[in-house]
Structure formats: C-alpha cells, structure tokens
Please model this.
Amino acid sequence: MKKEVARFAITHTQFVDENGNMNEDFPQDVPSSDILTQWYKTMVLTRVFDGKAINLQRTGKMGTYASSEGQEAVGVGLASAMQEGDVLVPTYREHVAQMMRADSPESAMTKILLFWGGDERGNMREGIGKDDFPACVPIGTQTCHAVGVASAFKIRKEKRAVVCTVGDGGTSKGDFYESLNCAGAWQLPVVFVIVNNGFAISLSRDKQTNSLTLAQKGIAAGIHFCQQVDGNDVVAVYEAVRVALQRARAGQGPSVIEALTYRLSDHTTADDAKRYRSSEEVKVARKKDPLLRSRALLERLGHWDASLEEELQKQSHASVESAVKSYFDIIENHPQTASDMFVFLHEHIPESLVQQQGRALSEKKGGIGGH
Amino acid sequence: MVDALNMALAYEMRVNKHVVVLGEDIGVNGGVFRVTDGLLKKFGRERVLDTPLSETLIVGMSIGMASQGLRPVAEIQFSGFVYPGFDQIVNHASRLRNRTRGVLTCPMVVRMPSGGGIHAPEHHSESVEAFFTHVPGLRVVIPSSPKRAYGLLLASIRDPDPVIFLEPTRLYRLGKEVVEDTGEALPLDRCFVLREGKDVTLVSWGASIHETLLATDALLKEGVSAEVIDVATLKYLDEATILQSVKKTGRLVVIHEAPEMSGFGAEIMARVLERGLYFLLSPPRRIAGFNCVMPLYRLEEHYIPSVERIVAEVRELLAAS
Model:
C-alpha cells in the first residue's frame, strides 16, 4: 500500500511589479511613503557607491571589487526588517545592509573601500552593527556561524535573531545544508536569505541545481517558513524578512527566504560577464531593476519627481565622495604599518611574532613580482 | 587521561557558565572515549550539545558561539574526520579576531583524539598536528600525561583565542596518575623537561613521549644519559628550552608519530639549526612515522616509532659522533 506522507509548496510573493504597480495584496499598514522614499534613497546611494568603487578599481586606486548592482533591494529590505540587537552574517556583496547598520553610511563605505583597497584597517567593523559578522569571502561558510550565533541566543534565552545571507552558488555547498539541517533540528532563531542573483560567477542558476526553487532546500531541513520573493521588490523582501524575524524571536524557528534578483554587474571587477551571458539577457534584467521599480512606485504615489531625483543624485554623489575622501586620507596621510598584520592575530602577541614584527618594521617595503 | 580531561571540563563548566561542550555523541553517550561522560547530567542540555553529524558545522557553529562570548569546547570524534571542519578552522576561527580588528573574537577549543596504537579502523589513527601548526592565529596543544592534560585543557579553554587540542588516543587509558582537581592551568608556551640528561636531547610530544621515556630507561642501562623534552605546546613553541638543552648535550633527536615529511619535527630541527648549529656535535635526526598512509592496525607497530627503533637510532647517532 502506498500513501502520501508529505506534501510541500513554495509561494512566490511580489507586491510591486516591475512597472511600479502595487499588487492587490500590497500591505496597507506598512510601509509608509516616508519609508519607501528612504529605501529608494538608500538604493540610489548604493548604486552610486558601486559605480564609484568600480571606477576606483579601473583607475588603479583600489583592488578587486564585488559590485552589488541590481541586488540593492534585497539588502535594503532585510536590513530594514532587522532590529539593532539582531546579528547580520553577510556575504561579501551585502554592502547596502552593512551601510544601513553602520553609524553612518559614509563610515561603512570608507571601511568597505579600505577592505577592497587592500588596507588591513578595512577589517575594522566597529559601527557596522556591534555583533555583526564581517563580509564572508569563502562561499557559504558563514551559514555555520549564523547557526552558532543563533544557538548562543537560544542558550541564553535572548529575544534576538540572526539574518544570514548566502548566494545561489552557496546553496550548493555542504556548509549550507549542514547549517539548515541543524537550524531546523534545533529550531533556531535564524533567517537565511538566499540572494539568488542568477549566477555562481559564470554558472547560471539552472545549471547549479535541478531544484525548482532554492527556498525548498529549507523544507528538507524541517524549516517551516520557506518562501520565494521577488528580490527586486524591496517591499516583498522587507515583509518576508520581517515576518521571519518575528517568528524567530517568538521561538517559532528558522526561515529560508529566496530573493530572486539579478547581478547586473560582473561578478567582480576581475570578471567579464560577457563571456557567459548575452547582452539581451542583461537588457531584459535591466527592465526589472529594483531602482526603476521603486522610483516608479514613488512617482505613482506622488512622492517623487525629476527635481527630487536630481537632488538625490547630487546628495548621493556628495556622500560617496566624502567616503572616498576619507579612504584616500587614511591610506595616503595615515598609512598602515607592517605592524597591522601582527597585532590582531592573538589577544597577546607571542614572543616569536614580536621578533618577526620587529623585522617587518625594520625593513622598507620590498619589490615582489606581479606588480 | 580520560578522567583528567573530564575533570578539567567539569571544573571549567562549573566556574564559567559560558563554557559549553558540543560534538557528536558527547551528551547522552558521553563521547566515544567517554571524555565528556556525565557532563550532560551535571550541566544540562543547553550546555552539553549533541550535534548533528557534521564536522564543518560543529566547528563553524563554535565560531558563531564564541563570537557571542560563549566558550565552546568542540569535540571532533576522530582527527581523521576533522578535514571538513578544516576550512572553518583555517579560514575563520584562526582569523576572526584579525578580520574584525579585535571586535569579534574566537575563544574556542577544538578537541580531538590523535594518533594510532589502539587497533582502530581506517581513518581513526591519524596524526594531524602539522596541518594546524602551519596556520597563523591558532595554538596547538597535545598533552602526554593526565596531569598535563588537565592543566593544559584548562589553559586552552581559558585562552582568548582558538586552540587545537589533540588527545593521544593510546594514552587515554594508559598509566594512572593522581590528578588533583585544583583548577590550576599550565602555561601554553612552555616545554616540559621530563628527564634531565647530558648526552642527547630527545624532543617529542603526545603518545610518542611514552616510547621515548621507555627508550630513555633502556639507554640509561647502556650508560647513555638522555634529556627528554615534551613539547606539549607545539604552537607556540618554547624554543629556548630546547636550545638550552641542545647546548648542554650537543645532540638532537626529534621523535614523532606523524609522517616525517613536513612534520613538526622539521620545524624544531630548522630552529635548532638556525640558532644552535654550533652546539651540535653530530647531525640532528628525526625518528618519525614513515611517509606512508597510516597503515591498517596490523602494521601500526611497524609504523609508529617504537622503543627499539628509538634506542637503535640514538645508538647510531652517538656512535657516529
């Protein structure tokens, strides 16, 4: 005898379509038009920052950089849903979420530039959410850290939760599955946001897995809140993460939210996406740009016009320029020393390292091949 | 040694509520070697966590816990299974302090049985210390007696940074030594001089200390006086104690169970050659595991440096100088 023992479904949510139209089920109470405006402004700032960062790399003033162009709505949505005491465990492409959780976007931008600009002080993250994790460069490993932070909250009975982002590529990794499995088994207060931007560098989403959605990967782990949202719709991202965090803090366990978006830029400045995707495909994706959509929505609501847009562009460029100025001021006028690679290795620097540090400090920067 | 380790864990869990232990089969089952036996009953499910079977997660989760001020002591059931967690140790645990300029830290211990000699199946007898000593930001500790196991484990849990704590499997039940539950830790950067001698310096660690001491007894009957140094804290290495001894004896033999090639013995020898070459009366020597896959158990007595091999090689060394 055979009988059905389990059945699952994944829903997809979109509140604002690509033309800025509100769908029927648009949440009426949240968010206010002020908030929508603020979200749009943050997305524009991030877009300007990305453009500037790429220019800095192209002109030899910064190292390899990973742009977040096209995925701004995911970061804005999830960071807006978080409380201060929550912990963000991000990938290396979550610039906007880090900016929103910093003392000021400028200070975060300067630190991001320092990091990609190869300065040890770019490892700094005071101000970027006290307990937040730094941008994780290895793929998917951060999901395990998120489980640990969430376990600590559960052990201490704290009403806090973790938001962990992971790319579509990261969902192929064992770390991701192991983390989801444990989060499900222990019903931990963690929200995994899969930023599905369509590519693991060159490998497109359809070639990564035969799984119909990435959200459903949480179902196998016994995670009860697994959803897909339009990741270019900031309202949909916000609403899903808000509910997921509410559940997490109430002890109702973990969630997986797959946000569908598109990486409009190259993987990093060292990549050339033309090698693996057509310009037609990118053209189609550009029509779904989260910034266009948010702006169209605001215009429809009567909260935006060309002069406000002009003013915003001006402000955003000024803000980015101020961060860039700080970046140059730090690397040019307050250069790091060789000590910077020794001092944070341990709480107390061991004797053998003191000797090496002395050696490093006594020598001028030498020549090495490649540069 | 099992009892001493258990006592150290219980002591620290009693005095520090932030200490949690986690791993596979460590709760209800008390660990496959019983190192965590009874802790679940004493400290409850919130501090003694039976994890799913996933080494990557065990280490990665410990990092997350440590970043929140807990003091996780993670057990990897056998060191041959640490490799999935190696990524987390190397890429994150060892670097979290540096990666955040001290804002987030990673005070955690990863414990695991180490080495062969207990007739275990494939992958259950590996000696992995050299993989970890190579990694900046880690400490690596391997005790060779119950007392040192107790004091060094306490020190490792109290250390503000990640420590890899290797437990020699064949010493778990070997030799009885009364250990007082004083809560006193041992330093994490000092060698232990176990025997004083004047003809040759024998440097070893972990289970090989056992054979080294037996060989020393045998050599003494032949009139050879060997000094024995236990490098229980491989990293950071107490180079001064070793150099001082070599200065006195003029001869150095490093004994370890891990394969000779790129083993930690090479590091010790390099340091002595760099800083104490002129103390030496004869070329230094390594007595180590052969550069083979750790054999299945019927050959392990041929693989692990034996008392006879140590005695014979020390004799050769002395005869040549």
In short: The interface with chain A takes residues 20, 46-47, 49, 51-52, 54, 56-57, 59-70, 72, 84, 87-88, 91-92, 97-105, 136-137, 160-161, 189, 236-237, 239 of chain B (CB under 8 Å). DSSP finds twelve helices and twelve strands in chain B. Residues 44 and 226 of chain B are 48 Å apart (CA to CA). The first strand of chain B starts at residue 19 and ends at 23.
